[in-house]
Please model this.
Amino acid sequence: MLDAVRRIVQALRESSRFAERRVGLTSAQLFVLQKLAESPASSLNDLAARTHTHQSSVSVVVTRLVQQGLVRRAPSTVDGRSVELRLSTRGRRAAVGAPDLAQARLIGAIDRLTPPRRRQLASTLGEVADALAGADDAPAMFFEERRPRARRATRA
Model:
């Protein structure tokens, strides 16, 4: 079992390194670009669902992509109060020329499991993860480091 976990982590790490060398983006950033290349996202929550990631984690990645000029936030064409996420021209070029990512293959492999086996896998891995790391914060996307939160000043 541990060998299987090591092989998965190794494949994800190698895929991430390859993406960074080839495109200059982390695999998490590239994965988000690829999902947006499939279709714009109507919200961060929509994109989080499509990337199988917590909203706060995908928000960190999107913010970095916006800062790099690869993703644009624009008022929704359906509801002007909400914001759509779209690729810029540079973002589309990066997504189109991107390598195959292990994350997409991992999701595909899990999707091919029967629903009962997916539930069992999720439950078992959840127990192991809780015992290892706890369940306090939403995890970051694969190999995407979170910036440390700024500490709030305390009143004396």
